[in-house]
TrEMBL record:
Subunit note: Homodimer.
Cofactor needs: pyridoxal 5'-phosphate
Record protein name field: GntR family transcriptional regulator
The encoding gene: avtA_2
SUPFAM superfamilies: PLP-dependent transferases (SSF53383)
InterPro entries cross-referenced by the UniProt entry: Aminotransferase_I/II_large (IPR004839), Class-I_PLP-dep_aminotransf (IPR050859), PyrdxlP-dep_Trfase (IPR015424), PyrdxlP-dep_Trfase_major (IPR015421), PyrdxlP-dep_Trfase_small (IPR015422)
Gene3D superfamilies associated with the record: Aspartate Aminotransferase, domain 1 (3.90.1150.10), Type I PLP-dependent aspartate aminotransferase-like (Major domain) (3.40.640.10)
Domain Aminotransferase class I/classII large: 63-408
């Protein structure tokens, strides 16, 4: 085909949004689909809409001037390192600092077992890439983190959900699910869990259940992938002991500075048994050669020079006030028949609507009333979650949270009358 004609064809196709490459994608691309609710969220990001939808950390609370100074200082003093390629495994000094950070959750780890990643999202991608063949089973809480489900779908994993209650994953259900998959000859590659202040459910796996879950997985030879970006954002008492603290060989731990510092740095990490770590480093190298030296050193500089423990405490207090505001408003305003979780940390509340209601169908009406949430179905790989929604309290100011719940309660009330 002459070049100009081909070009014309593409331009027309772009205009009409017909995908002329549709028959050429790899099979795995079939699992890469845009969220149906993305278009609504474009509307939901208008200032008049109270968004209880996004899980964006409140970075406004950071000492932005101090961060600006440390970045300038970094370039002045260590610019030739910060602007150069770095090691695929990640900056050695930052990996030491990450080990100090994880000690707060009872983890005793060596910097050599840490791989620095582009947020914990990249760690999720790499773990899935090295373990999953199409059709392999990943066990995940029901509901589970939408970003992880997207990654699992991209690698054609088959996700099997395990029920939770207010204490997190139910060990008996986990054991039964593993047994029935074994009987069916299915290959379970790992359990993906967010045990602390779960996204989206806001629940935390109790200490007693942590041991049971580890024991069940150990006996069945199932690797545990513990995703823990919210662990230090608890509102009461000391941080929970991480699963990884009690089973270094059976758990890959994923951490992130996105919630305790800022997601814009895109610095997360994986802590893995030696052999898995080696595969992760090779997979990372093939994906991106190496992480950004610049942001790794900036995070390292922040940890070395700023009062980060106080900053995390300030975040906890801010989020606690917002959690209290959301729970108080739900209690005061939601119609009877609704129920919701009461998170002890993190960003999210999981709400269940009365029988017969559908949160996805409700969303356009909610957006018209200037409030947004995430419908529950996005957090399941099957068709569950119709009556659920995720409400985030991390970003809006308390006054706006109250107003958002007032609007939402009105929409639910109207739906009940339909
Ligand atoms: N895991 C969970 C449970 C999350 O909530 C998030 C962020 N929403 C991530 C992983 C990814 O975070 P990041 O890549 O910014 O570290």
């Amino acid at each position: 085909m002459p070049e100009e004609q081909d070009h014309g064809r593409r331009t027309a196709a772009q205009g009409s949004r017909i995908d002329t490459y549709i028959d050429r994608y790899a099979a795995r691309a079939a699992g890469m689909v845009a969220s149906e609710i993305r278009a609504l969220f474009a509307v939901a990001s208008r200032p008049e809409v109270v968004s209880l939808a996004g899980g964006m950390p409140y970075v406004t609370a950071l000492p932005l001037d101090a961060v600006g100074e440390l970045v300038a200082d970094l370039v002045a003093r260590r610019g030739t390192v910060a602007l150069q390629y770095g090691s695929a495994q990640g900056d050695p000094h930052l990996r030491e600092q990450i080990c100090d950070f994880m000690r707060l959750e009872g983890i005793d780890a060596a910097p050599d077992d840490v791989v620095v990643t582009v947020g914990s999202q990249q760690a999720l991608d790499l773990i899935t890439r090295i373990f999953i063949d199409p059709g392999d089973v990943v066990l995940a809480e029901g509901p589970s983190y939408v970003g992880a489900l997207g990654t699992f779908a991209a690698y054609q994993a088959s996700v099997v959900h395990v029920d939770m209650d207010d204490e997190g994953l139910i060990p008996e259900v986990l054991a039964e699910t593993i047994a029935s998959l074994d009987r069916a000859g299915r290959r379970i590659k790992f359990l993906y869990t967010v045990p602390t202040f779960q996204n989206p459910a806001g629940v935390t796996l109790s200490a007693a259940r942590r041991h049971q879950v580890l024991e069940i997985c150990r006996r069945a030879g199932v690797l545990v992938v513990e995703d823990n970006p919210y662990g230090l954002l608890g509102f009461d008492g000391e941080p929970m002991r991480a699963l990884r603290a009690d089973d270094p060989e059976g758990v890959v731990y994923l951490g992130s500075f996105s919630k305790t510092l800022a997601p814009g740095f895109r610095v997360g990490w994986a802590l893995a048994p030696h052999a898995v770590r080696d595969k992760l480093v090779l997979a990372l190298e093939s994906a991106v050669l190496s992480h950004s030296s610049f942001t790794q050193l900036a995070v390292g500089q922040y940890l070395a020079t700023q009062p980060w423990r106080e900053q995390i405490k300030a975040f906890r207090e801010l989020y606690r006030e917002r959690r209290d505001t959301l729970l108080g408003a739900l209690e005061a305003l939601m119609p009877p028949g609704c129920s919701w979780t009461r998170p002890a940390g993190g960003f999210f509340v999981w709400l269940t609507l009365p029988e017969g209601l559908d949160s996805k169908a409700m969303l356009p009406r909610a957006v018209a009333e200037r409030v947004a949430f995430v419908p529950g179905t996005g957090f399941y790989a099957d068709a569950a979650g119709v009556r659920n929604m995720r409400l985030s309290y991390c970003y809006p100011e308390p006054e706006r949270i109250r107003e958002g719940v007032r609007r939402l309660a009105g929409v639910v009330q109207q739906d009940l009358l339909l």
